[in-house]
């Protein structure tokens, strides 16, 4: 059975901080990345995949 035409798939990539605002302020996140938290999160990309 082919699913082409029944299910649609898509994906998009973005900058982590554009989608998870304020995440860099979390003490837990700062505890993991320390002084480099802003740098790490600014360079982090996320990919969202959807289907329906």
Search tags:
single chain; 52 residues; alpha+beta; 2 strands; 33% helix; 27% strand; elongated
Q: Roughly what is the average pLDDT, rounded to an integer?
A: 90
H/E element sequence: EHHHE
Distance between the termini: 17 Å
Number of domains: 1
Q: How many H/I helical runs?
A: 3
Radius of gyration: 16 Å
How many strands?
A: 2
Oligomeric state of the chains? Answer: single chain
Structural class: alpha+beta
Helical proportion, percent range: 25-40%
Which helices and strands occur, and which strands form pairs?
Blueprint: E1 9-15, H1 16-19, H2 27-33, H3 37-42, E2 45-51
Antiparallel strand pairs: 1-2
What does this entry look like structurally?
The protein has 52 residues and is of the alpha+beta class. The protein has one domain. The chain has helices at 16-19, 27-33, 37-42; strands at 9-15, 45-51. A two-stranded antiparallel ribbon has the order 1-2. The protein is elongated and about 50 Å long. The two termini are 17 Å apart. The model has no long low-confidence stretch (mean pLDDT 90).
């Amino acid at each position: 059975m082919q699913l082409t035409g029944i299910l649609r798939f898509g994906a998009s990539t973005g900058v982590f901080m554009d989608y998870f605002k304020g995440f860099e302020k979390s003490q837990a996140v700062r505890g993991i990345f320390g002084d480099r938290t802003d740098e790490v999160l600014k360079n982090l990309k996320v990919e969202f995949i959807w289907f329906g």
